[in-house]
Amino acid sequence: MPVSSALAHPDMYDGGTVRSGPALSIIIPCYNECGNVEPLFRAVERALPHLHWELIFVDDSSPDGTIGEVWRLAQADSRVRGILRVGRRGLSSAVIEGVLSSSAPVVAVMDGDMQHDERLLARMFDAIQKQGYEVAIGSRHVEGGDNSGLANAWRLFLSDAGIRIAQHFLSVRISDPMSGFFAVRRDLFVSCVARLSGTGFKILLDMLMAQKTAPRVVELPFVFRSRHEGESKMDRKVLLQFGQMIAHHVFARKK
Fold it and tell me: Which tens digits make up the pLDDT trace of 122-139?
């Protein structure tokens, strides 16, 4: 469905009045997600009708034209932005660049494959802005959550094993430290950027391990959905990257 300028958010200057910045920036690291870009945008639009938000897609030079689709949407609606990364890859580093490009007091991170439930974004935002939490995690492992949308037994094994290992290294007790769906106060994230490993897929775990004091965290249940389009990028190299990230933080603590 083509995007018409008539559907654009009323984001223009009216009578010289300058519109304030977004309250929530949603960071979408992506690679080969062209077919998911507009459906994700539409889903977020339906889920957050009363919140001033923006979507920041961070694309690692996808050969399928993902960034072109993002820029097409951005021309019609200024709530969409696209960052094209050339010569570098990786989910965690993409998220870092996306967060640092934003100015909203709250940032959320979610995948571009439609497996994360966008309807949870409002509750995540409220948990931080109204309830005083610093991190709100979309969890598959609290009551009401489910991870049945994982593609196969290999991904299920990686997730479960990673959770058990990660819990040994965290100062805050959470059930789903491997979640890729979370919101955080932007200033908390920025304050620890220099201590992040920036490797692998698990930026939430990376961020939590980089904290000097345990943040206030809440877990909110969500059902992990099946992929809308495209294919999973998870492979065995994530085990090496996961080990490198853990080692990075263990070594930093010893120093």
Answer: 999 999 999 999 999 999
